[in-house]
Amino acid sequence: MSDMNQAMVEKYRSSFLKEVEANVEEGHWVKMCMQCGVCSGSCPLGPHWEHPPQEIFMMIRAGKREDVLSSSSMWMCTSCYNCIARCPRGLPITHIMHGLATYAKRLGLQPKNQPTAKFSQLFWNNLTKTGRVNELKLGLALYFMNGIGPGIKTALKMQDVGLGMLKTGRLNPLEILGGHSIKDKSGLQKMLKKAFEIEEAQIKDYKG
Amino acid sequence: MSEVIATNQTILVVGGGISGLTAALEAAECGKQVILLEKSPSVGGRVSQLHKYFPKLCVPSCGLEIQYRRLKANKNVRLLTMAEVTQISGEAGNFTVSVKVAPRYVNENCTACGECEKAVSAEFDDEFNYGLKKRKGAYLVSNMAYPQRFVIDPRIAATDDGAKAKAACKYGAVDLEMAEQNLSLNVGAVVWATGWKPYDAARIQPYGYDRYDNVITNVEFERMLDPFGPTGGKIVRPSDGKTPQNIAFIQCAGSRDQNHLKHCSRICCMATLKQTTYVKEQLGDACKSTVYYIDIRAIDRIDDFHRKVKEDTNVTFVKSKVANITAGSDGNVLLNGVDTEGYNRYRNEHDLVVLATGMESTVPAGVFPAGININEHNFIELDGDSGIYGAGCSSDALDVNRAAQNATAAALRAIQVVTRVAGQEG
Predict the structure, then answer these.
(1) CB-CB: which of B258, B322, B337 is closest to A90?
(2) Which domains does chain A have, with CATH numbers?
(3) Residues B237-246: tens digit of each pLDDT
(4) Is A36 close to B336, i.e. CB distance below 8 A?
(5) Residue B193's closest CA among B413, B421, B389, B354?
């Protein structure tokens, strides 16, 4: 991944905006921001952002590549869509934030131990293994995301919820043995691999 | 009503605001026959509702008075009030225009003595004051109304109040038998100047115009300054009538916004800057003004005005579009947002908020013949051959100065059409 990061730095040395337009989902919208600030003011998690969306857009245009891609900001987005609903220029801000987060992760620049980034990876791994989400394994993986100690603590805290789910048949303990899956697991994995290759090639071939 | 004579050498001007008046007078003073239609009982339009013009801060009644004198003096203009165009068909040089004329219930004998108003009791929202006060069922639109003739509200025409108004009139001016008329006019060219209306502020949900008493619009603020207006010329809070000490002006309220009006309404920056001078003049150091803006668009020569306002230490500028307004204590409201100069999060308390609402075009749908190009902002695009020309705020969001220029240009285009017709007919 860091090879790719290096390649991208070389390729877009002069313009981070061009890089974002080429490689980030909905990135071509960034230049449309008129810096009114409605998105930042409307974000329910706004006060917890390192840089609000409006500032992120300005930083992209100012070429602050490292600061943007290693920021925890876009990982704070909860997809409430308040910003999209209110943006006077119609920017798909939520999607751009997810696009930036994905791109940062792909380049290996996401902040270490960022919980949303970690959980996203857990979810992806869990899903792509069998083509179905294994909720038991995903839940346990989430509890133990930060190590054994905190994991046991969380598990104990949540045991009533877990038992309740077991009783009502909402959680199958046998899922621990592998769990249910789609018919053609290897087919899915081949498909994902191909999709990844196509995406990779697109990023590398883009003549920005 | 005496007969309205129109031929295909006649120019029809629709709308009697500053643009329509200007277009009609310019054409008439060139010797052309003009019919001027106005939907409401008086000409004057939005300009008559303003306290002062920017940038010179003179009073609009002055400019309107000149136009009214020109109108009164000119034999070539025939004015029809309470008249609305319902359909236009035909082509340049030969249009057929359907017009609906609503009954005024008061004829030419009216001397504007006001006895009918005293006699009636029913009250309605006063349109001239955006519903901020009530008016009687028999009324004069404003002191500056032209023609100076009363109107009987159709809602009282068939009631006891209507009969009382009739009985009170010494001149036999009240005619309750008047009915709606439908006219068909043959004209050579049309100047469309129906102007603008303030964008409905209640649709900007996060600003709570419909929820908070002390969130008002700039046009309402303008009415407050009129000595004959709803507050007798005093700047007050609608909730409790107290004098505000900390007013916020929010720019681009409904303009430059894909969810509302996409276009820049162009006048609101200057209107707000102008209104801060009202605050300074009336309340001095006892009241602060804060302007929340995306960018101030005070173009060319009016930028001097902007600079002058910036020198006023009681006026603060915050570069930010306010995200939303929430309730504070004691009728105050809280403005929430993030500014662009430093990305500082703010939650500012104000006791009065003025929304600088934008100009919404009133160009109607379904009236014009095919081929008239109305753009995505609902303004009429210029097409030299069409014979129907938008003037003033029917062609773009314009201030008074530019609207008058634009209307003169539209009049000149209309003159060319009817002159061509006259040449063909010999």
Answers:
(1) B258
(2) 9-111 (1.10.1060.10), 115-195 (no CATH)
(3) 999 999 999 9
(4) no
(5) B389
pLDDT at B5: 78
Indicate the pTM of the whole model. 0.91
Other beta carbons less than 10 A from residue A173's beta carbon: 9
Sequence-ordered strand ranges (E) for B189-279: 189-192, 196-198, 215-217, 246-253
Q: How far apart are CA A36 and CA A43, in angstroms?
A: 14
Interface-testing mutation among B321, B348, B376, with chain A (most A C-beta atoms within 10 A):
B321
Contact B195, B332 (CB under 8 A): no
Domains of chain B, first to last:
10-102+180-195+362-425 (3.50.50.60), 115-168 (no CATH), 198-359 (3.50.50.60)
Residues of chain B found within 8 Å of residue A90, distances taken between Cβ atoms: 258
Across the interface, do A41 and B258 touch by the CB < 8 Å criterion? no
Span A164-193, mean pLDDT? 90
Please list, in sequence order, all residues whose beta carbon lies within 8 angstroms of the beta carbon of residue A63, skipping any fewer than 6 positions away. Answer: A15, A16, A17
Listed ranges A8-12, A177-181, B284-288, B303-307; the one with the highest mean pLDDT: B284-288
* Angle at CA of residue B76, ends B70 and B77, nearest 5°: 65
Mean pLDDT, range B272-280, rounded to an integer: 97
Q: Is B347 on the interface with A (CB under 8 A)?
A: no
| DSSP H or E stretch at residue B37 | strand B33-37
- Give yes or no for A23 touching B (CB within 8 A): no
Which pLDDT tens digit goes with each residue over A119-161?
A: 999 999 999 999 999 989 998 899 888 889 989 998 899 889 9
* Residue bearing tokens 């639109």: B141
Q: Does A38 touch chain B (CB under 8 A)?
A: yes
Q: ipTM exceeding 0.95?
A: no
